[in-house]
Amino acid sequence: MSNSTTTDHARIREWAQARGGRPSVIRTEGKGGILRIDFGEQEDDFEEVSWDEFFGIFDESNLAFLYQDETKDGKISRFNKFVERD
Q1: Residue pair 35/63 in contact by the 8 Å Cβ criterion
Q2: Pick from 82, 80, 85, 60: nearest CA to 19
């Protein structure tokens, strides 16, 4: 149930795809957008993007990916968020 943090593109992509997640952004004024991993039916505010665009914004914004592999009761977790790199 512990959280992990990574900047490894392959690990992030693997984690998301194993849960049916898609790289997405919420477009904002200016360049890029707010990164999200979208699960299930596409949310109205989310725009699916390529992994290349996703990781371009990720690196430009100096972010890290905070995630959880399993919930407390051992189920697959979708918990994730983007945080500033140390």
Answers
A1: yes
A2: 80
Tokens encoding 24: 């997405």
Phi, psi (deg, nearest 5) at residue 5: -130, 140
> Virtual CA dihedral for 84, 27, 70, 21, nearest 10 degrees?
-140
What is this structure's pTM?
0.89
Q: What are 27-44's pLDDT values in tens digits?
A: 777 666 789 999 988 778
Contacts of 15 by beta carbon, 8 Å cutoff, 6+ apart = 21, 65, 67, 69, 80
| E strands in the chain | 3-6, 21-27, 33-39, 47-48, 63-68, 80-84
Distance between CA atoms of 86 and 84, rounded to whole angstroms?
6
Taking CA atoms, 73 is separated from 40, 70, 80, in Å, by: 22, 8, 17
